[in-house]
Amino acid sequence: MAIIRVAIVGLSANAKTAWAAVGHLPYLLSARGRKNFKITALLNSSTEAAQKAIEKYFPDDTGIKAYGNPEDLAADPEVDLVVTSTRVDTHYSATLPSIKAGKVPYIEWPLAQDVKHAEELQDAVGANGKSIVGLQGRYVPLFEKVKALIDEGKIGKVLSSELRAFGGTVDRETLTNKLDYFTDRSIGGNPITIGFAHLFDQVQSVLGDVSDIRSIAQIQRPVVKFIDDKGAVVRSEPTNVPDLLHLSGRLADNATAVPDATVSVYFRRGQPFKGQDAFTWSVNGEKGEIRLTARNTTFLGGQQDPGEVHFQVHDHVTDELEDITAEWRDWQNEYDYAAAKAIADVYERYLNNEPVPTFAEAVELHRKLEQILQ
Q1: Could you say which of 117, 118, 180, 328 would form a disulfide bridge with 332 (CB–CB 3.0 to 4.6 Å)?
Q2: Residue 200: what pLDDT?
Q3: CATH: 3.30.70.890, 3.40.630.30, 3.40.605.10, 3.40.50.720. Which one for 4-135?
Q4: Which CATH superfamily is domain 137-325 in?
Q5: Does the model's pTM come out above 0.85?
């Protein structure tokens, strides 16, 4: 198989957030990744910025090209796959020229700043075009294991499911300066569209599509404090982004759930009550119940490994509890960061022509988010 030539958009030498570096580079630069992928170009805000990133991350590779303009990258015939990891409101403009040039796009979630731009990206790809969106959390072993247990009938058909989560940011009242855009819904990246949406996608990947959604969103803290690197408050700004969501819905008809099975979700930004778990998810079935809890984060597969999550099944017939384990594949343990392990799986799936999260799926999730936040 020919080497897949990769361009990375947003791998910066001094980025506010380093998702491309911690999420994508570990696999792409590993021996396993190098067998089939080769980074051939970087696109940043300027050619100079791209060149600085090349010097930082690839000091011994003189063949990587530096670009400061999306159109110039699009014209490069030595790029097959364009990986975009920038602030959400730049995804569209940074990637669209490459899509139109016939390159395969891999854009981090959220796909775009709003439904309109997400739909336009999907239209550019077309019904038969390849695309990848960064919803890699659905491939975390925990969620794959829950789905396998349900599919095999471990708890009978699903009757209902409840998710209670606290997170999206480390603190309920403050944000670091580098996340100032989290207070502006028009940017498209915030604790709801990122923290909540990743969780919601993981739930749907296990249980199936959630429809008939009814929701309440609240802005509990209309002014957000910003802190510097030392934790000192340096300013305060108003926010138009909700920090609390309640929603309920029904599972679309599927073979593993009873008709009109319900799903309820509670998501609040920041910490839970002191000593309480940050994440609790239960799936109630005819014969038993599955329960997952995590103490420190809701970002399962991003910051927390499966082994740090308490995973049990309650058999209603025997009234016994069974501890369940879900581990990364052996080859994924080469990568230290949980997100890098999950992203590596996406690259492997793409390489092997297995299903990956697509723009079409991302558009549907964007539409649901818009409905939830109305």
Answers
A1: 328
A2: 97
A3: 3.40.50.720
A4: Dihydrodipicolinate Reductase; domain 2 (3.30.360.10)
A5: yes
